[in-house]
Amino acid sequence: MISFPRQFRSPTVRAVAALSLTQLIGWGATFWLPAVTGPAMAGDLGMALPMVMAGPTVMLVVMAMVSWPLSAMFERHGARPIMVLGSPLGAAGLLVMALAHDPVAYLLAWIILGLAGAGMLTTPAQIALTEIAGEKARQALGVLILAGGLTSTIVWPLTGLLQAEWGWRITTLTYAALMALVCMPLHWVTLARQPGEKLTAKTSGEPVAIDRPSFVLLAMSFAANGFFTWGFALTIIILFEAQGLDHASALAAAAFIGIAQWAGRLVDFLGGRRWSGFVTGLAASALFPLSFIVLLLTSNFAGAMLFAALYGLASGITAVTRATLPLQIFPAGSYARASAQLAVPLNFAFAAAPPAFTAILISAGPHAALWLALAISIFAFSALLGLLLLHRRTLRLQSP
């Protein structure tokens, strides 16, 4: 009989490994799919490419609309049953997409994927991991988010190979099969069956209260940062070229952002035990406006690379902070509900950002987009700083 090392028998380690894989499949098969298959889809379905690329936006809007109603279900039943149902629903959405022959069916597929995403992508995974990890939740979340940073790096080449061999429809069907045959069983086997013992209050039948001023400040800060980071995600190469870089230099600087983002996630993971979530979150929020100032004052490759380093580090650290800071602010019994409700403004910001920044770049130019991002990043930093002051005041009032 094979004997596994003790650490691999840990429920938390198994959950981190399983969720890292299911999140890679989930995001890679949905949001990141049209980045590779979009042109082929447009030609086959007789749709304009911008309309094809609007599919992920539809998905995010649906996720935002569904997240708030789901928040009470996460708190009452835990993440496991919802994620187990979300996986086959995602497979169904991909099946509809693979069989689509007109824009209506294509749009319907993304609506189904939005419903599935609200039940199995990012926020549910973070809730599920926190239910299992307990006091070690921050470290576990750091590993999960660190692994998630490799999604496009792994999935885009794989999708390209599958499409070159079999076409976009069979590629989409392959991902549907992975959702049903890999993600659903892993969610069923590895997630907590009775999470309430760790995260819900047992002393009262009433839900644990969420401090609304803290929630609003946190939501404003995260949504503001999410707006420009997702806005630049699809337009950063255009921005660099508008700043005067040639295409090769723009590609190199954009690619370096991904490396810096992964490094930022690693920094938070390595230092998370020593630093408060507020320390890392405020440091990242301060790097964002600094990065935009660098790009506003320079128009060469060196400036673009410095921007990429600062911006990427800030983005990576912020990705971890979004998952871990609610653990520090809200009571354990309300983490699931608070996280699901925070997903509403976040997903709306993510959905609105790419078309908004594209329109600004085209109509007003790169400097207008950078000035807007600078103003929003300062607002995000101020909201997070206000949250820190409010949190400290609350702790002082609660202390004997």
Distance between the termini: 56 Å
Number of strands: 0
CATH fold label of the largest domain? Growth Hormone, Chain: A
Indicate the radius of gyration in whole angstroms: 21 Å
Oligomer: single chain
Q: What is the count of distinct domains?
A: 2
Helix share, percent: over 70%
Instruction: Name the overall outline.
Output: globular
Strand content: under 5%
- Number of distinct helices: 18
The overall average pLDDT, rounded, is: 87
Largest sheet: none
What is the H/E string? HHHHHHHHHHHHHHHHHH
CATH class of the largest domain: Mainly Alpha
CATH superfamily of the largest domain: MFS general substrate transporter like domains
Topology:
Layout: H1 11-29, H2 34-45, H3 49-53, H4 55-77, H5 79-99, H6 103-120, H7 123-133, H8 137-148, H9 151-166, H10 168-190, H11 196-199, H12 212-233, H13 236-242, H14 247-271, H15 277-297, H16 301-329, H17 335-364, H18 366-398
Helix pairs in contact: 1-7, 1-8, 1-9, 1-10, 4-5, 4-6, 4-17, 5-6, 5-7, 5-10, 7-8, 8-14, 8-16, 9-10, 12-16, 12-17, 12-18, 13-14, 14-16, 15-16, 15-18, 17-18
